[in-house]
Amino acid sequence: MTLIDLKVLDPRVADFLPAYATPGSAGLDLRACLDEPVVLQPGQSALIPTGLAMHIADPGLAALILPRSGLGHKHGIVLGNLVGLIDSDYQGQLMVSCWNRGHESFTVQPFERIAQMVIVPVVQASFRRVEEFGTSQRGEGGFGSTGKH
Ligand SMILES: O=c1ccn([C@H]2C[C@H](O)[C@@H](COP(=O)(O)OP(=O)(O)OP(=O)(O)O)O2)c(=O)[nH]1
Ligand SMILES: [Mg+2]
Description:
This protein is mainly beta. It is 5% helix and 37% strand. It has one helix and ten strands; from the N terminus they run βββββαβββββ. The strands form three sheets. Strands 1-4-8-6 form a four-stranded antiparallel beta sheet. It has a four-stranded antiparallel beta sheet with strand order 2-10-5-7. The termini are far apart. Deoxyuridine-5'-triphosphate binds at residues 65, 81, 84-87, 90, 94-95, 97. Deoxyuridine-5'-triphosphate is lined by residues 65, 81, 84-87, 90, 94-95, 97.
């Protein structure tokens, strides 16, 4: 298990620290640290604080913030940035951009679970400038070049 430093910025979230719901879970649910409900009209988005800050510190790791499938599928509540990327050197509050892509208004309740976070490995690359690549089977083919079936 990887140990990551976490700061509780709002004491109200101290009882709801991110935790894996089951032994096999990949995602850690993040909650809305709100004083009052936030109504998202269709098409509207809001940046919702979580009351938490995290310093991953290891450049070989990052965190991704992803929608929760139930909220996304049933209510159209996804992320305004589609996916949130948390850099290993970020020490600010974890924020969730909630976007109502649905057709009905949705109310985010204080401390409701609004998104999930996955800790992932990262490879930092450096680049070597070349004039020609070594051959590959695909070459420059893309965007459907392998056919439809
Ligand atoms: O959903 C998100 C996405 C990002 N962040 C924080 C952590 C991340 O490390 C930082 C910067 O994110 P990103 O690089 O995606 O944003 P940017 O628009 O490129 O800002 P910057 O110039 O600060 O890198 O913002 C969040 O709290 N939630
Ligand atoms: Mg950036």
